Amino acid sequence: MSNLISQANAPFEGYVTVSADAPMGMLTLRGDLSSKPFITALKKSVSTDLPSACQITHDEKMSVAWMSPDELLILTPYDQVAGLQAKLQKALGKKHFLLADVSDARVSFTVSGDKVREVIAKLAPVDLAPDHFAPGMFRRTRFGQISAAFWLLSETEARVICFRSVAEFMFNQLSAAARPGSEVDLWS
Amino acid sequence: MLILNCPYCSVDAEETELTPGGEAHLKRFGPGSSDADFEGYLFQRENPKGVHFERWRHANGCGKWFHAARCTVTLEVFGTYSAQTTEPPKNLQKTISKKRPGWSWREFS
Ligand SMILES: [Zn+2]
Questions:
Q1: Do A54 and A82 have their domain in common?
Q2: Could you read off the pLDDT of A130-161 as tens digits, one per residue?
Q3: N or C: which end of chain B has fewer CB within 10 A?
Q4: What is the CATH number of the domain that holds B75?
């Protein structure tokens, strides 16, 4: 293992700040999200409201993101993922589903600052105008050449996730997009 | 630059978020089929100037395959629709007839 991007890496201080997050617990859940019994069983272990298409919901314990019509991504603190997985496994019982702990598959970055929207817009083909993309929405897309997903926590803070194998590339391109002097001043 | 609305996540996905999957509604001919049918399945493709039906995958997104109808000349997109079908939806065919009277593509017109 070499050059693993982790929380130990110093944040990049550009015109926004790019930092790697502490490991996050992540569960992939696939199943028939249009099935009432499935949803009922799911709600026994998931405390947040279930997200509708392209949304993410949060409470103090977890976030749940809509990945596709048959897939959710559940985010928890890293040390709680095993417990939640066991709970879900039990709640869903014999229903047809797939549940996998993918915590170590992905990394998460926080981008924060006044111009967080435009830094993301430099890398992803997504309309980030404030009337198009708002906190609560969740978007899978690409950042440069790599697949990623992001959501806004507030007007000044975004979270970006991507596969761990491309973590360094993601950190570097976010940092490049945030380089002082490269401001576009799109929405400020 | 093509922008297609993914029918599964409703995102207006720009071309770079998608992977092209070639011609739509191909019928597979496998073991036991005639040589002509197998050759047709493998190699014979439409190459229209105008209305065309294609498969696309929202690869950097929800990951789903879907269908799209577009004009190869103007890049106008007539519509996108589910992958779980063997022919273009009737209302989409109607829309195309309004915009491109007299169009035809394989057995559809
Ligand atoms: Zn999609």
A1: yes
A2: 999 999 999 999 999 999 999 999 999 999 99
A3: N
A4: 3.30.2270.10
Say if the Cβ atoms of B14 and A125 lie within 8 Å. Answer: yes
Domain boundary among A45, A73, A101: A101
**d(CA A141, ligand 1 centre) in Å:** 9
The pLDDT value recorded for residue A1 is: 39
Choose one of A101, A134, A158: the last residue of a domain: A101
Eight-state DSSP code of residue B74: T
How are beta strands B77-81 and A17-20 bridged, if at all?
A: unpaired
**pLDDT given at position A187:** 84
Ion ligand 1 contact residues with beta carbon within 5 A? B 6, 8-9, 58, 61-62
Chain A neighbors of B60, CB-CB under 8 A: 140-142, 147
Q: What phi and psi, each to the nearest 5 degrees, are found at residue A76?
A: -140, 170
DSSP B4-25: EE-TTT--EEEGGG-EEEEESS
Q: Domain limits at B100?
A: 3-107
Structural domain span for residue A49: 24-101
Domain count, chain A: 2
Whether chain A has a CB inside 8 Å of the CB on B59: the answer is: yes
ipTM above 0.85, yes or no: yes
Tell whether A125 lies on the interface with B, counting CB pairs under 8 A: yes
User: Quick one: tokens of A89?
Assistant: 């496994």
Tell me which amino acid residue B75 is: L
Per-residue pLDDT reduced to its tens digit, A88-111:
999 999 999 999 999 999 999 999
Asked whether residue A153 is domain-assigned, the answer is yes
Chain-wide mean pLDDT for chain A? 94
d(CA A4, CA A14): 21
Q: Do A67 and B62 touch (CB under 8 A)?
A: yes
